[in-house]
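wait is this the right file?? whatever heres the structure
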């Protein structure tokens, strides 16, 4: 790294200014190999699931950061030190106490040059995040433009949203709403969680929360409760004709609430029973195939015998009400038009629609296995999830056909590159992972196992060893084992191979 650490690559701002989409561009500081966080995911997990720093450590880091920021106002050497500090330390955990300390010391009005420098120059995300955050205390209204550009990338949305709110005045709704329309990952989660506080008195925002707010690329479960309550879902469903977009959004929201997960769910939603009944009533009048997925999810949830339903009875989920809802779901699912629509949906080029059809098929009594196998043969020989789906369903004879197809279609000879410290080694290796994970003594394929042992992907090699821990190796796997005992780079995998040889 040079004396100017920001010179290691192009500035992130310049990358985002030239980005037109779709998809987020790779950032200059991304590593080519190894396990990577999705954009904004590390900060998202830290903010939602991780405890704060130890007070003593936080105080030491904040003191050092304040001194570096103060020195950086008029010293490029100090800026280089501050830059390196931000590359090594968790910026998210330090931002709030750092900004508070800058205000306390009366330094807030001096930091804009430092913020602008980091925003313009940073080729690493940590220093850029600090630069954005410093605008919270030293920014001007004219800085909102650059914050909007940065907010388009989920890695920086949270920081840009917080800084923008400080510059936009007492009601940042329009700024946040505009930002939320341009992101789908963790950035959207952060924005929607904040927007719901401003939804009372704003019917347009409430409707957007119902129609679009919950849809994100991380997990709809993070936003389902916020959108249901902030958007007043049960009130919207009381209308005679809420509109197809509201109903689509309601199906996503209610399905995520039923699923449960990392945020508040159906057991926290006081109007849950009312909303379910109202939504089902609208779908009974005119449901689309896409909306039918929710009906299947609801039918499965209501019929779950592993649930202690007595805990939900105070919320109205009595046996009588559940049985009545269950019968309504089943009558809707049994309508004669669905099987043909399901088969048509599975032929679609839309992956989400095909996935919906595949998921719903067992509930409608439709067997899509042959259609899926034909797709594997003719269109998507390197689709890992197609392999997984085919091996999840079907009998032994069908599974044998999948392994036959894999041996014929996967580029096995070019996949056995030897061990490396890679988690992701390409689609073909991910396909092999699913094949190895599902492999049994009856479906054992020696060449697939041997290729797995020599894959550069750690998970692939580990799964291949797992097969051999249950099934005796064939001749190709024996040769691959001997090779890997010499050059395996992951100690745990090597130890498992050594144990197999002793056995």
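ok assuming it is, sequence goes like this
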């Amino acid at each position: 790294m040079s004396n100017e650490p920001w010179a290691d690559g192009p500035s992130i701002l310049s990358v985002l200014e030239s980005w037109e989409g779709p998809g987020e561009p790779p950032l200059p500081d991304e590593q080519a190999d190894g396990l990577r966080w999705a954009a904004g995911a590390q900060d998202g997990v830290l903010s939602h699931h991780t405890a704060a720093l130890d007070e003593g450590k936080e105080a030491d880091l904040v003191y050092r950061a304040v001194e570096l920021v103060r020195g950086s106002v008029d010293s490029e050497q100090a800026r280089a030190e501050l830059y390196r500090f931000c590359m090594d330390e968790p910026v998210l955990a330090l931002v709030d106490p750092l900004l508070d300390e800058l205000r306390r010391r009366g330094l807030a009005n001096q930091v804009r040059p430092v913020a602008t420098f980091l925003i313009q120059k940073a080729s690493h995300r940590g220093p850029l995040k600090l630069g954005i955050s410093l605008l919270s205390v030293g920014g001007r209204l004219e800085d909102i433009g650059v914050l909007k550009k940065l907010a388009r990338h989920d890695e920086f949305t949270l920081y840009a949203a917080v800084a923008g709110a400080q510059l936009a005045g007492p009601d940042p709704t329009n700024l946040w709403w505009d930002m939320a329309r341009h992101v789908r990952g963790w950035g959207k989660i952060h924005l929607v969680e904040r927007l719901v506080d401003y939804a009372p008195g704003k019917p347009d925002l409430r409707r957007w929360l119902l129609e679009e707010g919950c849809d994100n690329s991380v997990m709809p479960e993070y936003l389902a409760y916020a959108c249901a309550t902030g958007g007043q879902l049960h009130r919207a469903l009381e209308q005679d004709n809420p509109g197809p977009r509201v109903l689509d959004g309601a199906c996503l929201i209610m399905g995520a609430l039923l699923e449960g997960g990392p945020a508040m769910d159906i057991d926290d939603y006081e109007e849950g029973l009312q909303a379910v009944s109202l939504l089902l009533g609208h779908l009974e009048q005119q449901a689309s195939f896409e909306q039918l997925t929710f009906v299947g999810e609801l039918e499965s949830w209501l019929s779950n015998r592993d649930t202690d339903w007595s805990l939900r009875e105070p919320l109205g989920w009595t046996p009588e009400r559940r049985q009545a809802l269950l019968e309504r779901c089943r009558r809707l699912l049994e309508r004669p038009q669905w099987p043909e629509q399901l088969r048509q949906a599975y032929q679609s080029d839309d992956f989400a629609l095909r996935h919906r059809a595949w998921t719903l098929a067992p509930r409608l009594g439709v067997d899509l296995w042959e259609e899926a196998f034909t797709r594997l043969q003719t269109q998507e020989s390197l689709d890992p999830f197609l392999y997984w789906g085919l091996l999840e369903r079907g009998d032994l004879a069908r599974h044998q056909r999948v392994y036959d197809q894999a041996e014929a279609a996967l580029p096995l000879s070019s996949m056995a590159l030897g061990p490396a410290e890679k988690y992701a080694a390409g689609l073909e290796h991910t396909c092999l992972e699913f094949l190895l994970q599902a492999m049994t003594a009856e479906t054992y394929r020696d060449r697939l196992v041997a290729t797995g042992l020599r894959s550069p992907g750690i998970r692939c090699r580990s799964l291949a060893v797992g097969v051999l821990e249950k099934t005796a190796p064939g001749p190709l796997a024996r040769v691959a084992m001997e090779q890997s005992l010499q050059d395996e780079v992951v100690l745990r995998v090597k130890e498992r191979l050594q144990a197999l040889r002793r056995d």
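The mean pLDDT is 92. so i think its the right one actually
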